[in-house]
Description:
alpha+beta
Amino acid sequence: MSLRARLAVLLAALALPLPAQARGLEAQVLAELNYARANPARYADELSQALDSGGWALRDEDPRVVDEAIGFLLAQRPLPPLRAHAGLQAAAGAHVRAQARRGTEGHGAAAGGLAARLKTEGVWAGLSAEAISYGYAEAREVVVQLIVDSRVPGRGHRKTIFGAGYSLAGVACGPHAAYGAMCVIDFAGALAPR
C-alpha cells in the first residue's frame, strides 16, 4: 500500500484533517509515524516483507535488529495518533537549520538541547523527547530507520515513537552537509500551561 493510500486510510479511520502547519515531507513523516503507531502488526508484516526482498531503508540496517524490531511491533498495542504541534515543529526546525550548516549530529546538548529549543519556542512540556534521522529523504525510510534503530543500543527512538505518553509531535526535515538529509521529530505529552 502506498504512503498516500495509508495516509488516506488512517485519516479517514481517525476522522483527522491533515494539519495546515505540516507540509510535504514533514506531513508524510508524521503520517508514517501515525500509521506505524496505529497498525504495529501490519507494519511488522511490511518490514518482514521488505527484509525478505532486501527493500528500501533496510539496506543499511542489521537484519538481526530488523527481526528484533518486527518482534517488538508484533507485541505492541495500537496507539492513538500524534497530533501536529506548531511549537514542536518550530523547535525541530531550529535544530535542522543549526545542524544543516555545520553538518553536525546529535541533540545539541552543549547548547541546552531539546529543552532549550522548546523553551525558545514557548513550549513547556512535562514529557518530551527527540528523534533524529540522518541520510534519508523519504518518509518511510526515515520512520523505518528510527523504528529499527540499529545504531542506538537502547533503541531509544523506537521506544519514543511507541511511547504511550506522547500525544504531540513536530517534524522538520532539511538538507544536511554530511548526510545529505535529516529529519528531526520532537515529541511531547501534555503541555504545561504558561
